[in-house]
């Protein structure tokens, strides 16, 4: 009987050892997969800054900087340049979903150049965008050069931006229509 008991104990010890090895391998795999998920989560939770040019009224353009990432952008740096004129903007933190709006750089601070004037001059907009994430990793989101002539032509075709001549014609048409309406009401009142 003692031999049988010894064999049972040996087999149960081997089974326990095998189960322990299997659990150790499964635990290692679980830790490895968890590490991958965490690193992907960290990458996914990084700031993502997007810069775009959008119409401002019917004559002007402005640059919009938006954090579309899931994490705040820290130590944000933006440099906009149109020809020799540039502006630099720095900000401590840009929260996810937040946007900041900027007029295009110009020579005269008191005068905003119309997009048509910039396009006719062959102006090119460049934007240097950088920030850090929570861990201090520096990220660069600089955009390629934007030819304002192409932008103006596309916006004019789509109706987002009107040429000053078109606005002048529209103003005259509204004034003419208002005068005709006023005259008709005055005639009707008599």
At the first level of CATH, the class of the largest domain is: Mainly Beta
Number of domains: 2
State the helical fraction.
40-55%
Number of DSSP E strands: 8
Helix vs. strand class? alpha+beta
Low-confidence stretches: none
SSE ordering: HEEEEEHEEEHH
The biggest sheet amounts to:
5 strands, antiparallel
CATH architecture of the largest domain: Sandwich
Number of helices: 4
Radius of gyration: 33 Å
What does the average pLDDT come to? Answer: 81
Q: Rough shape?
A: elongated
Distance between the termini: 130 Å
Describe the structure in your own words.
This protein is of the alpha+beta class. The chain has 2 domains: 1-44; 49-167, Immunoglobulin-like. 45% of the residues lie in helices and 29% in strands. The protein contains 4 helices and 8 strands; from the N terminus they run αβββββαβββαα. It has helices at 2-44, 115-120, 148-158, 164-189, and strands at residues 49-56, 60-67, 73-82, 85-94, 99-103, 124-132, 138-140, 146-147. Strands 3, 4, 6, 7 and 8 form a 5-stranded antiparallel beta sheet that branches. A 3-stranded antiparallel beta sheet has the order 1-2-5, with no helix packed on it. The longest helix has 43 residues, at 2-44.
């Amino acid at each position: 009987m003692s031999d049988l008991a010894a064999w049972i104990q040996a087999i149960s010890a081997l089974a326990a050892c095998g189960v322990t090895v299997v659990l150790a391998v499964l635990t290692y795999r679980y830790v490895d997969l968890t590490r991958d998920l965490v690193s992907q989560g960290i990458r996914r939770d990084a700031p993502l800054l997007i810069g775009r040019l959008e119409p401002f009224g019917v004559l002007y353009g402005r640059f919009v900087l938006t954090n579309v990432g899931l994490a705040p952008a820290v130590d944000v740096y933006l440099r906009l340049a149109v020809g020799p004129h540039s502006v630099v903007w720095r900000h401590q933190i840009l929260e996810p979903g937040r946007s900041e709006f900027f007029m295009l750089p110009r020579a005269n601070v008191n005068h905003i150049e119309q997009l048509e004037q910039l396009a006719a001059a062959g102006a090119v907009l460049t934007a240097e965008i950088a920030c850090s994430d929570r861990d201090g990793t520096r990220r660069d989101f600089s955009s390629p050069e934007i030819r304002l002539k192409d932008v103006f032509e596309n916006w004019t075709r789509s109706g987002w931006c009107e040429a000053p001549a078109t606005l002048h014609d529209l103003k005259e048409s509204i004034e003419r229509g208002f005068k005709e309406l006023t005259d008709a009401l005055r005639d009707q009142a008599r």
